[in-house]
Amino acid sequence: MAIDRKLLEILCCPVTKHPVVPLSPGQLERVNAAIADGQVRTFDGTVVDTDLSEGLITTNETRIYRVDDQIPIMLEAESIPADQIDGL
């Protein structure tokens, strides 16, 4: 189930202050492929080993945030620097 649109309208990245938008299906596929290859780390350096079912990306395309059970995890340490993912 998708994240609530009204919530999405008010969310912004706590670091860059840019708005966030849902990852497109293609972006989500690329992120999950990179996760499966062991190429993705969070901002604090932790290896991401669980696929994203949903995600948000900043409009400047620098950070990705996981969405778990329709709840965006908007923590800097758990954000994923988007420059690790080819083709985003």
Summed up, what is this model?
By secondary structure, this protein is α+β, with helices and mostly antiparallel strands. The protein contains 2 helices and 5 strands; from the N terminus they run αβαββββ.
Describe the secondary-structure layout.
Blueprint: H1 5-10, E1 20-22, H2 25-36, E2 55-58, E3 63-68, E4 71-72, E5 80-81
Antiparallel strand pairs: 1-2, 2-3, 3-4, 3-5
Description:
The protein is an alpha+beta fold. The chain has one domain (5-84). The protein is 20% helix and 19% strand. The protein has helices at 5-10, 25-36, and strands at 20-22, 55-58, 63-68, 71-72, 80-81. Strands 1, 2, 3, 4 and 5 form a 5-stranded antiparallel beta sheet that branches. The longest helix is centred in the middle third of the chain and has 12 residues, at 25-36. The chain is globular and about 35 Å long.
Number of helices: 2
Cα distance spanning the termini = 23 Å
Order of helices and strands: HEHEEEE
β-sheet strand percentage: 15-25%
What are its keywords?
globular; 5-stranded antiparallel beta sheet; single chain; about 20% helix; alpha+beta; about 90 residues
